[in-house]
Design a protein that fits this description.
Blueprint: E1 16-20, E2 34-39, E3 43-44, E4 51-58, E5 73-80, E6 83-90, E7 97-102, H1 121-124, E8 128-137, E9 156-158, E10 161-167, E11 170-171, E12 173-180, E13 184-188, E14 193-198, E15 211-214
Parallel strand pairs: 3-12
Antiparallel strand pairs: 1-2, 2-4, 4-7, 5-6, 5-8, 8-12, 9-10, 10-11, 13-14, 14-15
Length: 225
């Protein structure tokens, strides 16, 4: 059976979240300050396994620069099944911005160990979802160096709010999700097209998903499949 699907030719949608700052940081923030987030790329490939999120402050008094040196640290968490990876950055400058980066574990790019029985092939080729969360923490030293970004730590859920994560006693705020795609090998069909298939060995009767892509050096403008 051969099933073809259109490729992701559209631009990924803008993903942003706006969350009021925690009450514990009120001495550093005016009442209406908010932390916004923007996922730089929602599609992550093994060739460049980096998850980057831009954090910035909105609603501040731009005439007051007295708190620039006291801006807090942002810690970002990525969750996949029972594993966790971390990254961090410190809000800086007059604009109060920073980019947090983390690297998913290599095993996260493999197919999930638990897959819904009714999951469609079209859903499988969209990559493995990874949820992103963050917390804002004050820092007196001005340093925002985090622990080992690949070190796991307990993740607790509040019984009354099963979707809320906690790092210690600090509730996490959800950023959104990214999707991890499996490593692909290229098989050249001709001067115009290549087939991209999973690079892992294929078992008999196993269902796989492949992509038909236009070569970078192709000069054709019209073609028929």
């Amino acid at each position: 059976m051969l099933q073809t699907l259109p490729g992701p030719f559209n631009t990924p949608p803008f993903t942003s979240s706006s969350v009021p700052t925690p009450a514990s940081l009120s001495p550093l923030f005016t009442f209406n300050w908010k932390v916004h987030t923007y996922i730089i790329s929602e599609q992550i490939h093994p060739s460049w396994p980096k998850v980057q999120v831009l954090f910035y402050i909105a609603g501040r008094d731009w005439d007051d620069y007295s708190t620039v040196q006291k801006l807090p640290c942002v810690r970002m968490f990525a969750f996949h099944e029972t594993q966790e990876v971390r990254g961090s950055c410190k809000l800086k400058g007059e604009l109060g911005i920073c980019v947090a980066e983390l690297e998913p574990l290599a095993s996260w790019f493999s197919p999930p160990t638990v897959r819904p029985g009714r999951q469609k092939v079209s859903e499988q080729v969209q990559g493995t979802p990874v949820e992103l969360y963050y917390i804002v923490q004050s820092t007196d030293s001005g340093d925002c160096s985090s622990e080992d970004s690949r070190k796991s730590s307990p993740v607790h859920t509040e019984p009354q709010r099963p979707m809320a994560y906690f790092a210690g006693h600090t509730p996490m705020q959800r950023i959104g999700s990214v999707r991890l795609f499996q490593p692909l090998s290229e098989l050249k069909l001709d001067n115009n097209f290549v087939v991209m298939a999973p690079s892992k060995p294929i078992k008999q009767r196993e269902t796989i998903s492949t992509f038909l892509a236009l070569s970078t050096f192709s000069s054709v403008h019209i073609f028929t499949l």
